Amino acid sequence: MSITRLFETGFAAIAGCLMILGLAAKAEAIERLPKNTVPLTADEVRRLYADKTWQWSAGAGRFIAKDRRFIAYSEEGGKPTIAEGRWEVTDHGRLCMNAVWSTPQDKARNRTCFRLVRDRGTVYQRREPKGNWFVLRSFKPRPEDEAHKLVAQDTVSPNIERLKPGMK
What we know:
alpha+beta, eleven-stranded antiparallel sheet
């Protein structure tokens, strides 16, 4: 079933999780990037995300270094959703998650990508193709930096195991 069809049939939990991946909406948008930004290398993107959990308000996504596995869960609005797939990076500052998102009623494939650039130590990120740019990590770290939501602890695996038996 396509993502569009899932939206049409009311599977808001998957839609909500896909929106979570665009969490830039909650981070403060940048009106204009500095002129001299350059894309992060694949290695720089890997170092930011490998073996990290990206914490969301009602769930999280985990970027497992081994085999570049990506897993996620959400319980947004009391509706359980899980994702299992892979993540990839490029030397053009691109991070993509290819995953199957499952609810108790159905499942659908989705690919979500982010672009990462830097300027003088500050890393900016946006969801592609038209997301807002926001600061992922400031040159001098600030409490509002989205990077503070990238943590080493794996809070995703236990929740996937707990939720998976009830998924399609």
